[in-house]
């Protein structure tokens, strides 16, 4: 057995004796340190003390009782932390300040059902020879990214097909609100045609907080994921965006807005509850 686990007979008994000399408190701490490191690694080394604390205390996960303060202390001992890098490039060009563009949403970011309010925005991603541009559509109910596209220009021709694809994927059968800033792509005739059956809402003049949820997502994907890479090409950027959105953000990453569930799970729970109410 000792050869199988890679230690000598004497080494095994020495380790066992050391563990026997530890107090229950020391053993618990060692166990929790291991869990914290595991959770942090599974989150792509993204989660901070708050989210790790929730996972540890979750009765369906580890069901421990530990404070965020203690988790933060243990993370410092382990030399790990949440990832945060900040940078900014303007992507809203030639804004239209026409008073006819009304802010219908008015910072009401918590609709009661899916497909009631979408928001759309574009951000830049630095690559070796310049930038590529990520346009994302979020369902505000679950904060799920329900459509996205990566392009090499800020042309409206990249935005309108994305809207059409997203409408088909979400099986939209009735008008809904779609909120955006006042960029030239979003105020174009092509955009108005693509959203003709929707109620269009626009942020106030030079006031990005009106589209805070999608702006926050674009900050997240950069600081948690993209900014740790030296991205050389459009294709590499697209692969990284896919990995973050489709295999982590929508399906794994827990959100306080969703009751510390992933957006996908939050929507599925809503649909299950809705079907049960209909069947009753």
UniProtKB/TrEMBL annotation:
SUPFAM superfamilies: Ribonuclease H-like. InterPro entries: HTH-like_dom (IPR025948), Integrase_cat-core (IPR001584), RNaseH-like_sf (IPR012337), RNaseH_sf (IPR036397), Transpos_IS3 (IPR048020), Transposase_IS3/IS150/IS904 (IPR050900). Residues 110-271 form the Integrase catalytic domain. GO terms for molecular function: nucleic acid binding. It comes from the Bacteria. GO terms for biological process: DNA integration. Gene3D superfamilies: Ribonuclease H-like superfamily/Ribonuclease H. Involved in the transposition of the insertion sequence. This is Transposase.
């Amino acid at each position: 057995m000792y050869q199988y686990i890679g230690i000598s007979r004497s080494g095994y008994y020495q380790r066992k004796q050391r563990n026997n000399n530890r107090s229950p408190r020391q053993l618990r701490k060692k166990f929790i340190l291991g869990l914290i490191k595991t959770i942090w690694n599974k989150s792509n080394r993204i989660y901070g003390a708050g989210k790790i604390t929730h996972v540890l205390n979750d009765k369906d996960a580890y069901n421990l009782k530990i404070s965020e303060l203690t988790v933060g202390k243990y993370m410092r001992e382990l030399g790990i932390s949440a990832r945060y890098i900040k940078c900014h490039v303007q992507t809203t060009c030639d804004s239209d300040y026409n008073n006819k563009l009304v802010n219908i949403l008015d910072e009401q970011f918590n609709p009661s059902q899916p497909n009631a309010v979408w928001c759309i925005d574009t951000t830049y991603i630095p690559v070796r020879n310049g930038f590529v541009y990520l346009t994302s559509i979020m369902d505000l109910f679950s904060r799920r990214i329900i459509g996205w596209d990566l392009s090499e220009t800020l042309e409206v021709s990249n935005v309108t097909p994305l809207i059409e694809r997203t409408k088909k994927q979400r099986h939209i059968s009735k008008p809904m609100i779609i909120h955006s800033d006042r960029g030239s792509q979003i105020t174009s005739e092509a955009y108005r045609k693509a959203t003709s059956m929707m109620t269009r809402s626009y942020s106030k003049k030079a006031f990005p907080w009106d589209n805070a949820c999608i702006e926050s997502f674009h900050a997240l994907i950069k600081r948690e994921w993209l900014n740790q890479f030296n991205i050389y090409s459009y294709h590499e950027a697209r692969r990284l965006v896919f990995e973050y959105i489709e295999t982590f953000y929508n399906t794994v990453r827990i959100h306080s807005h969703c009751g510390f569930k992933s957006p996908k799970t939050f929507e599925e729970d809503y649909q299950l509850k809705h079907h049960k109410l209909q069947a009753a």
